[in-house]
Amino acid sequence: MKKNIVTEVVDHELCIGCGLCAALCPEEALEMTWNRYGEYNPLEIEPCTRGCGLCLKVCPFADHEEDEGTIGEALYGSVPWIGHRPEVGYHLATFVGHADEHRSAGASGGMATWLLERLLAEGIVDHVVCVAPTGDPERLFSFSVFDDPPAVRAGAGSAYCPVEMSGAIRQILENPGRYAVTGLPCYIKAIRLAQKKDPKLSARVVVTVGLVCGQLKSRPFTEYIASLAGLVGEVKGVRYRGKSQEQPATNYHYAFTSTAGDERKIFWNDGIAEAWTNRWFTPRACNYCDDVFAECADVTFMDAWLPDYSKDYRGTNLVVVRSPLIEDLIRRGVRDGGLLAGPVPVEDVIQSQAAVVEIKRRHLAHRLYLDLEMGRVVLRKRVCPAREKSPSLRREIALKDRMRRSSRAFWAESEDPDAGRLREAMVPDLKRLSRGRKMARIMALPIRTVIYVRGHFRGKHHE
């Protein structure tokens, strides 16, 4: 049997559902469909007779010799004055700030929307590809192609549900022009891999805009949070990053509308955080991503999760720039007054995503070690397999992965799933996790005490 995207990726639950394989298949043998867990996967609708393997060559989670590091080096390594950090990749400039005109509608500071509009307004690109709401309960968000600056605003905000870009990529291939494409790290990597195989895609995608990502979520994640909020009816629309004057930026809310006309709102601290941080409804592929900062993108946007900015409910962006063209646009935007932004140390950018870096590097090393021990497929990553030394962290990684699997299975197998029953099923593991953290803190007390005492007496000695 010939190797293809289904046998090598989908069957191992490593598909992230980007859709590049379906878009580029020369036989049009693949179609993106929902799997039982509410995630996009390619389905073979026609027998593959050519066996060209292109589907695997453009997959961000297939076994490649190239990774985000080698791709980034080829794209940006020769840019004058550019720096490099292993956590963030190449960086020409780093900024912090916001765009006043777009801030209220954006997930954070509105700078990504500002940039996409500016790219169109200055004729640098003819089209912008980004995610926008559909109003369709079966597919709440999709990649759309916009041709004028005001229309881009429909894509402002975040989308924490599956989207696939096979249709948008086909549109790029069928319609000449210059395109800017937005995407999460794995999606941008897939585009870069595809550009190496398709000259049209290479010539037409002239700007890539990345978004920092800790994990994706399946469609049931939205259904679970809507149920937790008490929504009546099927979810028809959702805004994932609502802002409230009485809350800091970190305690944003989801606002739902249903097919029954019901409206509900729920804040991060009221249940979203529990599901998110414990990796409920997270695809397995996310366990094997080591790219936090979309290292293959010309520019990457993220929230400024730093003490100086996170209390401002209006939101603030951090930006990593790798392209001289994008750096020039942002600096001119600051001079013109469209942006209120300034330089920020790259160390602050990395610190803002410290928890995600920990998961995608240290946790990943332990997951790869477990795969090696269990005789499973071990993906080639920039992180080497290594057994985690901390017993408490090993336990946490194991418990969170069990909750990830359990949440996906619970929603898929329940005839009438609801938030209350799922959370009840998660309680034993939540308690184990809580006990483990308490024990870790207790065990750390003697160490901290010794460090304090040594420092105290060392100071006395030098007085």
TrEMBL record:
PANTHER family in UniProt? 7-HYDROXYMETHYL CHLOROPHYLL A REDUCTASE, CHLOROPLASTIC, FORMATE DEHYDROGENASE SUBUNIT BETA
What Pfam family is a match, any one?
FrhB_FdhB_N
User: What does the UniProt keyword field contain?
Assistant: Iron, Iron-sulfur, Metal-binding, Oxidoreductase
List the InterPro entries: 4Fe4S_Fe-S-bd, 4Fe4S_Fe_S_CS, Co_F420_Hydgase/DH_bsu_N, FRHB/FDHB/HCAR-like, FrhB_FdhB_C
Task: Please report the name of this protein according to its UniProt entry.
Answer: 4Fe-4S ferredoxin, iron-sulfur binding domain protein
Task: Indicate yes or no for the key word Iron.
Answer: yes
What Gene3D superfamilies does UniProt report for this protein, alphabetically?
A: 3.30.70.20
Where does this protein come from, organism-wise? Answer: Methanothrix harundinacea (strain 6Ac)
Cofactor(s) it depends on: FAD
